[in-house]
Amino acid sequence: MALLNKIGHVLTADLTKDFKFKKKQADAPFEITFVDQLKKRRSIYELGKKVHYSQAYIAELIQESVRSCPSAYNSQSTRIVVLFGESHQHFWDIVKDIQKRNVPIAVFEGVEMKIDQCAHAFGTVLFYEDQDVIHKLQKQVPFSAADFPVWSEQTSGMAQFAAWTSLADSGLGASLQHYNPAVDTAVADYFGIEKSWLMRAQLVFGSIEGPVQEKEEPEDQDRFRIYA
After folding, report:
1. Which of 51, 61, 130 is nearest to 88 (CA)?
2. Count H helices, E strands: the chain?
3. Residue 217 burial (C-beta neighbours within 10 Å; 0-12, 13-18, 19+)
4. Amino acid 217: pLDDT
């Protein structure tokens, strides 16, 4: 396929039909690409505790993943809390208790099932953004003060994606949850979280205990535009 016939032409064809990531020859060992690793990351909800890695290994894997992420002005504002065992269970007990008080009785049964599903997993990663770091940068670079909260969200998103992908590449399933801000105060009180840390998401992970549903993808022409 000719790449593009003229400048300004929008490429809407399916590139996968004509373009392949370079791999070794057929007689050479199969080479896993970075994109292959990215494709392993999926939302998986049927999770269990049949994990053969040590807690120390998983904690270090998550830490290294977050350390490797970029951040605006090298702010490194992301903060991580990794929960295993009783701490993981207690976190989801807190979530259930708060949801029971805040959610209508008519829908709580469904909410409880989802929370129990999370509790059955092996562990949870809590993602925070340190607001003290953001406020300090706003004072140092006042002309970008309004942008730092946005950049902080982007930093957190990259950290979540990196940790999630690393877990997936290790054969573990995970799903991203957002029970904040309702649980923030109770969780901070129980685990002694700094007041400046703002919770952004919870990544629950564990062994994959059920089939992974096919992911529906929108048409490429509705998502991508490529110009030359």
Report:
1. 51
2. 7, 5
3. exposed
4. 84
- Helix or strand run (H / E) with residue 168: helix 148-169
155 and 77 Cβ atoms separated by less than 8 Å: yes
Nearest to 49 by CA among 217, 228, 205: 205
**Phi and psi (nearest 5°) for 81?**
-125, 120
Q: Distance between CA 4 and CA 84 in Å, rounded? A: 52
Task: Give the DSSP letter of residue 43.
Answer: B
Q: State the helix-helix crossing angle for 105-119 and 85-102, rounded to 10 degrees.
A: 170
Tokens matching residue 24: 């070794």
pLDDT tens per residue across span 156-213? 999 999 999 999 999 999 999 999 999 999 999 999 999 999 999 999 999 999 888 7
Alpha carbon distance 217, 32 (integer Å): 23
C-alpha triplet 208, 200, 172: angle, nearest 5°: 15
For the chain, the structural domain boundaries read 1-42+219-228, 44-208
Q: Where are the beta strands (DSSP E) in the chain?
A: 47-48, 78-84, 123-130, 173-177, 197-208
What is the model's pLDDT at position 214?
Answer: 78
| Nearest Cα to Cα of residue 203 among 223, 176, 180 | 176
CA distance 45 to 183: 21
CATH of domain 44-208: 3.40.109.10
